[in-house]
Amino acid sequence: MKQIAALIAFCAALGASFTPRAGGPDPVVVTLAYVGSAQASALFGIRQGLEEANLQGQFLGQRYVLEVIEPGAAPAADFSSYAAIVAALEKENLRMLAKFARGRAVFNLISEDDALRAACIPGLLHVIPSSTMKRNAEAQWRKVHPDANVVAMAWHGDFVKFAGRDLNKRFQKAFNTPMDERAWAGWAAVKIVSDSIARGGAADPGVLLEFLSSRLSFDGQKGVDMNFRPTGQLRQTLLITEGGRLLGEAPVRGVAAPDDLDSLDTAACSG
Amino acid sequence: MIRLFAAILCVVMSPAVPAAPTHRIFVTNEGSDDLSVINGKTLEVEKTFTVGKRPRGIGLAPDASELYVAASEENVILVIDPSTLKELRRFEAGSDPETFAVHPNGTIYISNEDAAMASVFDPKTGRKVAEIPVGLEPEGVAISPDGKKVIVTSESTNMLHVIGVPEHTIIANILVGARPRSAVFTRDGNVAYATSEISGEVKKVDMNQHKVVAITKIADEKAKPKDVLLSRDEKTLYVAGGRADAVIVLDAQTMQVKANIPVGKRVWGLALSRDGSRLFSTDGASNSVSAIDTATHKVIKTIPVGEMPWGIVIDD
User: Fold this and answer.
1) How far apart, in Å, do the first and last CA atoms of chain B sit?
2) β-strand pairing of B211-217 with B201-206
């Protein structure tokens, strides 16, 4: 009889239970600013990144919020309350924003301008690849496939390797549209910030900026460890497409090692 | 009366005698949707059969009476008789069941990769016992030998989530290097080792303090550490090196790399024979399994299997 009682207890212990997410003291609120069009695909990516940052934040007592600033309102805006700024702006507006927001990280999500990299503007970090990186990636592909007419991109909605499939699935489900390269850049910028705050332990903009430039080890779901070059450009794998179809990745095997990200970018500060 | 009946049912369904080992090695091939059955003595494939879309996670019941295979794109776990190779039943296992581990009590802890959830199933009934929200892209599952702690790695949240059993609450979240993929406990449960694929690291974690106490970064830049196993004497760690196309051997105490065993391409899965003399790796991009002599650190045989072999388990 005792045995039966024990078995009943065992069976009861197998009964379904649902455990709520970990609670705890009031979370630290980290506020990010977005400067750019409210319709930009980069903003969708930012929102996906926020969702994921908050999923991590609930385990660490951090909560991420976003404030959207129209580009026209940027000159008058007070940036002092933001941990970092994510921007979908072209080069001149981006240069100005980096000045207004001095002392905190400004992430460039759309401008591919080479001169902006060479200028090495303090705090300005380029998540989107530069024009030169894209041309170098395309040239590497041509060395192996000289007849191909390819276009290099930071991301593609059909990318499945290195858990690219998972990110594309999450994004498609949330926004009902494939993730494009600007959306990826927006997502990556927020994840870079949340990863760095999680590891660096502080949301102070200066501490964050220092962490970003010296200690970043970021998984952008492209199979490589990413960090920033002295120009502020994010080292990353690029995806090779032809007619909108995904063909492969650069660095291109046979031309450069998959981890030799500097084979795509040798830009230096113009001084 | 109903409770008594349920209890009797429990008794009837509890296997009493461990099954005699089949000495087979089972391999999931995520590319060809099938399972390769290798004769553990001859190291020849004796049978290959279709199991379902994108089979990845694989495991045996504590008494080895049943083989579990996760067909991750069909959201099911198949229950297969390891001896007759017949499918006994299957059950819905939540969204995208990728990897799982079998608890000493027979329940299965699964990472549901695209649901940010770990779930617990009773494979006898197919019933979900619990679900525990974890980080993004949960992957590796490791269970302490005493069954009191479960580690689930979340690849995109970069954490080891430590879940207490039977409460099924998270008791610690340990931040680790980018893309943690796999973990293993020591027999006494005091230490766990975990791999981080993107940061290229192997970490030693104090499981009483829930703190990382040592980190080894694999020098080979190509190394993307995935599965991790301990030798039977717990002095040696075996790490599947991913793109390094090698199994990396570390001293478990000093965490120094002792040897590099070249195998096939994109090595992810590892399994060790009960006596510890043979280590097997799934070499995903070579469509093969490497059989390694652990005394000499040499590959003794390369066994062609299906496309993109992923998970591996030995019934010995």
Assistant:
1) 41
2) antiparallel
Residues of B in contact with A10 (CB under 8 A): 10
Distance CA B32, CA B207 (A): 38
Residue A241: band (very low, low, confident or very high) from pLDDT cuts 50, 70, 90? very high
CB A204 within 8 A of CB A46: no
Residue pair A94/A75 in contact (Cβ under 8 Å)? The answer is no
Strand order in the sheet with A105-108: A62-69, A28-36, A84-88, A105-108, A124-126
Predicted pLDDT of residue A13: 37
For A108-122, what is each residue's pLDDT tens digit?
A: 999 999 999 999 999
H/E run at residue B113: none
All domains in chain A, ordered by first residue: 26-261 (3.40.50.2300)
A149: left (phi over 0), alpha (psi -120 to 50) or beta: beta
Closest chain B C-alpha to A194 CA, distance in angstroms: 10
pLDDT value of position B180: 96
Region A175-189: mean pLDDT is 98
Which residues have CB under 8 Å from B62's CB, separation 6+?
A: B102, B103, B104, B105, B106
Rounded (10°) CA dihedral B198, B201, B204, B207: -10
Residue A70 pLDDT: 92
Closest CA to B160 of B147, B146, B179, B145: B179
CB < 8 Å to A52, chain B: 136, 156-157
CB B111 within 8 A of CB B100: yes
Residues of chain B with pLDDT under 50: 1, 6-12, 15
Per-residue pLDDT, B2: 53
Of B208, B203, B142, residue with least CA distance to B171: B208
Tokens of B110: 């699964």
- Within 8 A by CB and 6+ apart from A12, the residues are none
Closest CA to B30 of B1, B54, B66: B54
With beta carbons under 8 A apart, name residues in chain A contacting B179. Answer: 163, 219
ipTM of the complex: 0.84
Query: B122 is written with which tokens?
Result: 């009773």
- What's the DSSP call for residue B186? -
User: To 10 degrees, the CA torsion angle through B109, B110, B111, B112?
Assistant: -140
Question: Which of B7, B132, B200 shows the shortest C-beta gap to A7?
Answer: B7
Identify the pLDDT of residue B114: 83
pLDDT of res. A271: 65
Of the candidates B40, B14, B41, B36, which has an alpha carbon nearest to the alpha carbon of residue B26? B36
Longest CA–CA separation in chain A, Å = 85
Residue A219 has pLDDT above 70, yes or no: yes
**pLDDT value of position B17:** 62
